[in-house]
Request: fold
Amino acid sequence: MNHTYLRLAPFSVLGIVGTSLLLAACSGAEEPPPFELSGASSALEQRLEADTGSKWQVVRGADNVPRTLAPVGHVKLPGGGSQDAARAFLAKYAADLGGDGLRDLGVADESTSDDGSKAVHFSHVIPGTSLPVFERGTGLETDADGDVSFVESGLGLDFSSTTTAPAISEAAAKGAAARAMRSTCGDASEATSAALGGWPNDTGKVFLAYRLALGAAGTCRAPVVYVNAATGDVLRQRDESPSYFDTVRGGSSYTWNDASDRKTIDVSQGADFAWYMRTQSAQAPVETRDFRTGNVVSSASLGAWDVPDRGIAVDAHFHATRALEYFRDAHGRRGLDGRGGILQVYVHDNSSGNYDGDNAHYQPGNASIHLGDGNPRTQRYLPLALSFDVLVHELGHGVIAHTSRLVYERESGALNE
Reply:
């Protein structure tokens, strides 16, 4: 699909980066059609549609068991967003969700947000015991009007080989956790808490394990280590600090030597204890990725983000997060889809499909924004991530794709722009 672009003299964008880049970066060279449901529906999706009168999106995990269910239309449950209504819904579809009834469903926690949305969250237990299943939960959320926003299912766990009596002591597990922490964090600390329960792997198989929380040491702030209670092997280690904010140089500090350009970005730490441009905020979910590798932008230490690339990823991550925060605060909208779905922002997309870097566009198919660095041959534009206007404009395409779904051609395409 052809587009008309504003043509600027080389680097004339320096003084008008917001307005000019907005006009230059309206949308992709071949912007995909608005998001639509496609593919054959599964038996679960067909049953949900027959029962509720609405199509549903079903997302499956690595074990091919349904994990997230989200209605496309308006669906209300008898009893609203109460715990009883959630239990009744889960019980009705337990077999489809891979569960043996609700035998491992534990106690529920109910909450109501300021915007009127309600959430019910269930913990899980090893059947026949009160031992918790770590890192697993099931929940249902409704919006302020009582419509179901989404259902998250943790059912379908495999307890066929789960034991309930540990073969190693808690002290031995603490020793294994300290050794693992010293290896990854450069130092170790004392365990601040220890608990016995079930740890599920990616396929849903549950192992009896100790969960050891340790104090900050070395490069780690809130490390947690899971140790197999039968063998003493480390099953997983991660940092569970609720949120990390890092203040670093933005693109203007590199491009215009603006010493005041310091941006505070919301980042997270992975299981490998590296840092990632992935927000902790469920209200403004953003992943910033490098188009050249496809990976989330990462750093071995805080304060050293995207240094070879002159703060471009820092600006992209900051601007996208701020834009989603606006939609949350002004309109009560969680993410582009209104359900907290992750927005992926790709920097350094200098492909031919993105005008060799002279463009920015939104891709509805995978809810992603692509930002070029400016084509060095034409020297027409600076990196588009530097402009907040560009991010907001492309993010607007995302909201349109999930709401009015304007066809990207003729009059409706003009309205889209």
DSSP finds eight helices and 18 strands in the chain. The first helix runs from residue 17 to 24.
